[in-house]
Every structure is written in C-alpha cells, then in structure tokens.
Amino acid sequence: MAKVRGLALLAALALAGCGGSSAPEPPHAGAVLRLALPLMPATLDPARVADLPSLNVAHELYAGLTRFSGTGVEPDLAESWDVEQNGLVWTFHLRDGIRWSNDAPITAEDFRRSWLRALSPSLHSAYARAEMQNIAGARRYRVTGSGEVGVEAVDARTLRVTLAHPVPWLEEQVAWPVFFPVPSTGSATSGPFRLASRSRERVVLERNFNYWNVGAVKPRQLVLSTATTGADAVLPRGVLAPGFPWVQTARGGAGRSLPTLSLELLWLVTQGSPLEDPQLREDVDAAALHLPGRATFVPRAMPGRATILPSGTRTTLSGPGTARTLTLAYTTADVRGAGLAHALRDELAVDGLRLKLITVPTLGELVRLAGPPARPGVDLVLLGWSSEFFDEYNILDLFPCASAFNVARWCEPSYDALMHRAVRTLDDEERWRLEAQLVEQLEAGWPAIPLAEAREHVQLKPGVSGFAWSPIGIYELMGMSRS
Predict the structure, then answer these.
(1) What is the C-alpha to C-alpha distance for residues 332 and 70, in angstroms, rounded to an integer?
(2) Average pLDDT of 94-109?
C-alpha cells in the first residue's frame, strides 16, 4: 500500500502562509534586515554549494520538494508524496501553479533536468556525491555522465524517483539544495527570495512574490554581509557543512544557544596500533567518561533518542592501568579540541597511560593524517562529524568495515549486517530499535568515543524576531521581522 506523507502539514502551512486570519502583507510592507554571515557565499548555485553560509543563502533563494523545519521537513514545492515498493519508488506531487520568479512555470522536468546536471561529472558537486548516490543509476552517471538514472517526469506535476535500495529519509535528503531545480536559462529563483544584487562585500535578497507561500515571507529585503557592526542579527558562525569531516569551531557568546547534530569524536585506531587491545581501548573510554560535557552517539536533538538510548549515558568501569604511550592528533583549528586533549591526557595519566599530543594547523592536514589508514604512530584522532539528515544512521554509517571514513579501521561483520537491515527499514520505531543494537556494539568495541556535542549561536537585536533554526545546520530567514 502506498504511504502518503506531507498532507497533514498542509492546513498548518496554509494558515502560516496567510498569517493566521490576516491577509498577506502588501508589496511595500516588511522590514529591511541587515544580517551578518561568517563569510560571503562562494557560489549561489544550489548544486555547487558546499559550505554552510552558501548552503543557507541558496536555501533562501531556491526551493525544493521539501524544506527543513525544526527536526524534520515540511512540504515545499511538492504538496505530498507516496512511498511504494517497500521504499524503492517515491512519487512526488508538485503544487499546482508554482512558478519561477520570472513567472515561468516550475515543472517536474525542471527537477529531472537539474538532478542530472548536479550528477554530471563536470560539475564536481560535493553534495551530489554525498546525497544523490542512492538513486538508481546515479553512481555510474556521476562518473561517466551516461546511463539511465531513476528520476522520471511522469507529467508536469509528477516526479517519480526510483532508488537502488530503500532510503527511509529521502524526503529529508531532497530538502538539501543540491536537489533544488534551477532554470534552464537565466537567473530566476524559486524560493522565498530573489537575488536583487551581489558583490564581493554583500548579497541583497528581495521577497519573491511568485513563491507559493509568499504570505509567510516577512522581510521586504535582506542585506547579507560579514559586517557585524549595525547588523540586526549575527547569524551562526559555523562554516563547515554537514556530512563531511568536521572540527568544533563554533564559539559561545551572547545570544541564543542553538542545538546541532554535530559530535566531537575521539577515534581509536584499532589496527596497527596498541589500541588493537580491547582492554586498552576500555581504559581510554573510562578516562574519557570524566571529561566535561561527555556526549553519546545520539545527539540530544536527534529524533528517536529515547528509543536508541533508553537508559541514557552508559557507564564504564576502568580496567587495570597499562603502562603504554599513545599518540593523539588534532588540529589547532578545533576550538574545543585542545582543552579536551589536555584533559584526556591528565585523566589517562591517573591510570599510568602517557598521551603524546600532535597538532596540525588545518582540518585538511588532520584528515590526511587520520586516513584511513592513519599515519604510522597515530593512535587517536580528534575529528568530528555532523549529520545531514535526522536519523542516527548518518553517524552510525561511519563504522562499517568498508566505510571510507572509518578512521578506527574497526570491523565487525555483525555490525555491517545490522546496518544493511537498518537502511532498508522504513518504520522509524523499528529502525531505531536496530540502531539501539548498533550503538550497543559501538559501546562494546570502542572504535570511537563521542566527547561533546557542538552548539551554535545567533545574536538578534532587540525587537528582531522570527529567526528559525534546524539542528541539521540550516536556518530560515523568511519569518524574520522587526517590531
């Protein structure tokens, strides 16, 4: 039986789009808001964006089938979707009358053409590699630029997507800008805003009156730059996008503290290192339990946390001390990492373990040092990760035997078999129960230790409201206003 999603939110969205019982704002209404970014967008092409500021600005200019909202997604250009054949086929139904900012109609063919463009080898899209590979034929097409791809424009308002294997969270993946349609010619946009002007110093966005939900768009104009002086809001300062190696660079400060799905991970190299010894890994884990802000493999903002971690944070008793010297690598770009590394060194010393610290200046150098395989002599690596959709599978997928990101080089066939089942399980509760078993295996094998959860911050001037944040790392500006 087809599984229909998205319909339950339509009534609420219609009310939000109309501002409750009031009529949409007239064209002249709305504030001009000046917002500070951590850096200027490198590109506004939704298929090419990779850093968080570029992703977020593209997210305001363009719209996709769905849109991030809180800890999930809501319908955007698609009003509903069906899931059939045990999750292999997803059919998205576009809203009637959706149009580009230049008044041309947006059709299912625009999506099909744009997805093939994003997958083309010449575009080198980072997020096409990260998010589009589960579509049937996409892996081959991304390498060769040829072959059939499982995306079909059935008619102007119907897009059918066939997957290589079931993906329970495809409605979240298509909320990433790489899945947004772009016009075949010109610079029209489909999201809440259109591009008014762009220079090296600032980007100016104006309300797009052709956006299907324009009644929910409060600002008349957004002026984006890196200048914090005179800004109505200083937006989150993170720049590294979810789904790739990450270090904790967000700093605290005044303003609202925002949850994220980012975890600072201490990787334990389990092959070619003294940490092949499970007892030694247990000693490191026991020492890490005493570090401030100790996290779990499931961030607090992740749906399903109560099912995956029913008893909360586990406790581990330290084994007997072992006179060994271990080497930990981290980057000085990691704001929190230096403090964690030194605190861990002190805790291990209590058990007679000596920790040698190696620092490198950049994330790129740390990734090269970590491998996998890690460079000889490196036993531990401080390197984080952030989910790009709202399911713990995204972090658990770092640890299968063949994972290209498995710094620990930990390999457990039963873990891989559970992962194979989890990704094909559409029912959330059932999948979370499988993920609980996966977390138990990680906590018994110690390939990595989650040390901390990162938080972001936003500063708003008095009277400025309506900033919305999704822990995935995407924010929403269309509801911002000034009293």
Answers:
(1) 32
(2) 97
